[in-house]
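ok here's Methyltransferase:
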Amino acid sequence: MTPWKRKEVIGGCTLYLGDAMEILPSLDPADLCVSDVPYALTTGGVSKSSKTMSGIFAAHNYANDGQLIMATVPFPEMMAAIYGALKSDADCYVMANDKNVHPLTDAALKAGFQFHNLLAWDKITPTPNRWYMKNLEFTLYLWKGRARTINNPSAKQLIRGGVSKITSHPTEKPVPVMAEYVGNSSQRGDVVLDPFMGSASTGVAAVQLGRNFTGIEIDPTFFDMACERIRAAYKAPDMWSQHEPVDQLNIGGAA
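and the structure:
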């Protein structure tokens, strides 16, 4: 019996519906991981719901101000599984908010990763907060095995770009942000992994850059959304391949 509930192959992309912790050990090692990993969310100092959360996106809970909270798994288990799903020499980008940077870094180092850099995405439009409005999200740039220079060594830590959502996914990320990471740490034909693909922004970036993609999503609605976006990406022009990586100052729209 397979560990996934459904599998879709679209071009060079293979998408799995199911729990990443169960599916990752069964996959061939990938060349790169780029993922907005799940973690508990709170806003404006309002504490999150006291409901017990288990599994990855296994349930949708809400804080008492109506903010959606995603169920998650402990970072140590998550990062160990990602580490094991990558080739012996591979880069890894995982996104986190300010409250989760330190525990996620600690888990990554204990899993065997080494730390390259802390990158930042300026969303331009801030999230309200009583202790400074939040306009930044962070990305841990990690590596496994042999360290390699990125394809564009002039790329900067900070990426600026809007957050115009085009899907109903609550934590959708811009394709150009994910394309910056994919373009800098992989080659055409490489396999890019996102074990928590959501609306598949990383997958769309991989398609646009001529990479293959392996994505996992536990929510059936978001899985269908991801399949639709990947199919649409193959019908669109290969817009990034001729000028990769993305211009950090003009990434513009969101995905």
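+1. Residues 43-69, 240-255 have pLDDT under 50 and may be disordered.
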